Amino acid sequence: MAKITLDNLAHSYLANPKGPEDYALQQLDHDWADGEAYALLGASGCGKSTLLNIISGLLRPSQGRILFDGVDVTDAPTAARNIAQVFQFPVVYDTMTVRENLAFPLRNRGADPAYIAERVASIAAMIGMEATLDRKARGLTADAKQKISLGRGMVREDVNALLFDEPLTVIDPQMKWELRTQLKSLHHDFGHTMIYVTHDQTEALTFADKVVVMHEGRVVQIGTPEALFETPAHTFVGYFIGSPGMNLLPAEIEGTTARVPGGTVQLGAAYPGLQGKVEIGVRPEYARLLPDDGSGAGLPARIRRVEDVGRHKIVRAEIDGPSGPLPVNVVAPEGAGVGLDQTRLHFDPARINVYADDWRVEGAAA
Fold first, then answer.
1. Cβ–Cβ under 8 Å, residues 3 and 68
2. Which structural domains are found in the chain, ordered by start?
C-alpha cells in the first residue's frame, strides 16, 4: 500500500492551454491516505478518468507531480508503480482459462504455485466463478469477463493501490451489490489503498471511506458520505448527492433571516455581509408541508404530485418565484398523509446550508 500525493497537479489535452477553461483537470493538491478507500464521483466528462489515468501512469500530467510514499513517480511507467487497474470494459486473455487468467499476475511475478492455487481459489469464490475455473474465457458473457478482470486486479496482495474505472458498468444489478460488498470486505481484510471511479452515487457512498466529488475538472469536496449529505461544500454536491437532490432557493440574508421567494426563513446561524449569488440549500428530508394554521409561518406552496417509492413519498411542490414557479421537493415518511390542504412549506433551521457563488458559507453562532 502507499500514500499517494497529488502535488500541484493539472492536465490539459491541448498543447498550449491558454487558461483554466482549457484544462480537463484543474489544479489539485491532495494526499490520498495509505490504506483508505476513495471513490471519485461525478458526471461524465468531469475529469475522473483523467485523474485515475494520471495516477496509474497511463497519462503524464501537463503540470505537477505524483508521489507514492514520497517518491516521485510522475515519469515512471505503469509497471514500475506496482498498481492494479480494472477498466470499465473487460480485459481478459480469451485463449486462457478463467483459472489461468486469475493466476497470470502471480505467475508473472514467480509466486509459489501453492500460494497461487490458494489465492486463485479465494478470488474465484469472491467473484462467484468457482464452477467455471477451467473454462476458456472466450465465449463467456461480458459480465463474466468483467468479473475475471476484477478478480485479476484483486489477486495480488502486495500492490501499492487498486484502481477501478467504473468496473461494474456491464455487471447485472444483483451482482453489482455483491461485488461492492466483496470489495469492501477485501479492503477491510487487506487494507489496500483503493480508488474507485463512478458516476453512480450509490456505488460511491456504499464503497468508500471518503468520496471525492468532481465537477468540471475540479474537486469540489472530499468527505465522508455523511458530510456530503449534511454539509455539501458546493451546490453541485447538494444537487448530485441525494435522490432527490438538495432544494436551492435564491435568498437575501441578514443575520439569521433569509428572504426568499414567498417570505422569510429562519436560519440556524448568522451570516453577515454575503455578496454575489446567494442561495439557501435544504435537503428534501428536512422540509415538510403542513396545513395553514393562520400564523403566517412557512412559505406558501402548492403540491403538484406525489410519488410513492415504498420507503417514503416524494412530494413535488412549488412556490412562486420572481420569474415563475420554483420547484421544491419534500420527502415525507411512508404512511404520512399528504393532502392539498398542506399549503405551507417549513424548513428545519438547523439543516439549512447557505451558499455564496455556489460555495458553502460557514455561519456564526446565532
1. yes
2. 4-240 (3.40.50.300), 247-365 (2.40.50.140)
1, 191 contact by CB (below 8 A): yes
Euclidean distance between CA atoms 242 and 315, whole angstroms? 15
The residue among 303, 308, 352, 350 whose CA lies nearest residue 333 is 308
Burial class for 265, CB neighbours closer than 10 Å (0-12, 13-18, 19+): buried
**Do 233 and 303 meet the contact criterion of CB atoms below 8 Å apart?**
no
pLDDT > 90? residue 316: yes
CA 9 distance to own-chain centroid: 20
142 contacts: CB under 8 Å, gap ≥ 6: 89, 90, 170
Between 22 and 178, name the one with better pLDDT: 22
Around 323, how many Cα atoms within 13 Å sit in the side-chain half-sphere? 2
358 is written with which cell numbers?
455556489
| CA–CA distances in Å: residue 260 to residues 263, 264, 349 | 6, 6, 14
**Nearest residue to 40 (alpha-carbon basis) of 222, 244, 242:** 222
- Spatial separation of the C-alpha atoms in residues 222 and 130, rounded to whole Å: 38
Residue 203 grid cell: 456505488
More confident of the two residues 181 and 42: 42
DSSP assignment, residue 14?
S
Element (H, E) at 263: strand 263-271
Query: Which residues, 6 or more positions from 191, have their beta carbon under 8 angstroms from its beta carbon?
Result: 1, 35
Rounded to 10 deg, the angle between the 142-154 and 113-127 helix axes is: 140
Choose among 180, 277, 268, 286: nearest CA to 229.
286
232's grid cell: 455539501
| Nearest Cα to Cα of residue 357 among 297, 276, 265 | 276
pLDDT over 70 at 286, yes or no: yes
Residues 6+ apart with CB under 8 A from 198: 39, 40, 41, 48, 166, 168, 204, 207
